[in-house]
Amino acid sequence: xxxxxxxxxxxxxxRMGLNDFIQRLATxxxxxxxxxxxxxxxxxxxxQQEAELMNANPSPPPSPSQQxxxxxxxxxxxxxxxxxxxxxxxxxxxxxxxLARHRSDDHFxxxxxxxxxxxxxxxxxxxxxxxxxxxxxxxxxxxxxxxHYSFQTTEKLYFVLDYINGGELFYHLQRERCFxxxxxxxxxxxxxxxxGYLHSxxxxxxxxxxxxxxxxxxxxxxxxDFGLCKENIEQNGTTxxxxxxxxxxxxxxxxxxxxxxxxxxxxxxxxxYEMLYGLPPFYSRNTAEMYDNILNKPLxxxxxxxxxxxxxxxxxxxxxxxxxxxxxxxxxxxxxxxxFSPINWDDLTAKKLTPPFNPxxxxxxxxxxxxxxxxxxPVPSSIGCSPDSSLISTSIKDAAEAFLGFSYAPPSMDxxx
Length: 417
Known about the structure:
Blueprint lengths: L3 H11 L3 H10 L3 H4 L1 H7 L4 H10 L26 E9 L3 E8 L5 E8 H6 L3 H13 L9 E6 L3 E6 L7 H8 L4 H20 L12 E3 L5 E3 L27 H4 L7 H16 L9 H10 L10 H10 L14 H5 L9 H5 L22 H4 L18 H9 L15
Antiparallel strand pairs: 1-2, 2-3, 3-5, 4-5, 6-7
Helix pairs in contact: 9-11, 11-13
């Protein structure tokens, strides 16, 4: 169970993106950086050598990447002034998510607004375009957030998404510390269904964590934030990019070895463990110790869960990915595990199973399940503005060109507006 001090430290670390986290790790003098295993993982030069390298080769200013034009796109008439932006409901490295009401029909949306300059500075434009591409492939899956359309101004990118206001799974775990097993089983089954669907499209999710799992107004799971998805990973395909969230990194990712779809099943095991016990399976405040735990420490399971739950956690959190549940037959192996024997999968995907928890929201304006850290923040006046074209600098124009192909509207866009 989480203590108050553990929870505060955990939340602070979890809110930090991996890039910012590694930057802080690399420039600190903590045990984490002096640990040989962690140095090997991060390929960190000794501090003195790092300082010399930085002085000898100062980082050039961010420059626009090659033009990106991925997938089908259109040139919609959508613009920021179409919306009345009401509340900040989320924040990330590159921008904010806002509750917005469309001015013409009063429909509510979650609009993700990203700063192009910030994306280009960290060279993350491919991840943003990957998120857009994955959203385009969501053919009405019940447990994946839907994209209505996207558009851009010279400075910002806008994703117009389903508005989901039952709260982050992370938020509910903070409040309740852990869940009873039937509730954890229900959520993990819906998560597994969403991951299985992505895998069927040859997409590996790679960043499963409670912050990226939302509850809808009825209490069903909605998976969101596809920025770290990797496309075109077939059944036996692998990739090797070092990315994810520290608490949930699989051993093969830490080892910088090629990894496959089973990285998502490791993350499912970590999230299930957290739902049952209140913290991720190998968590430590000391990052070096946590990484060492993930790589070397045997999984420890307390006796307050069923044998079926213990068995699936051991199978999902298998350090050798070739022995991990899901390695041979992907989602089909997950479905037939005894832990999920109470689940009728057809009824699950048809949303015929009653969720174990009802958020009891009264309507779109009910923000009780959003963190006040977000909702108390004023909505930036610049969110709904487009700068005068005569004032646009060359760098902003370059940023705009880097995201050609971003804008998207479905053929039946009128039905959404």
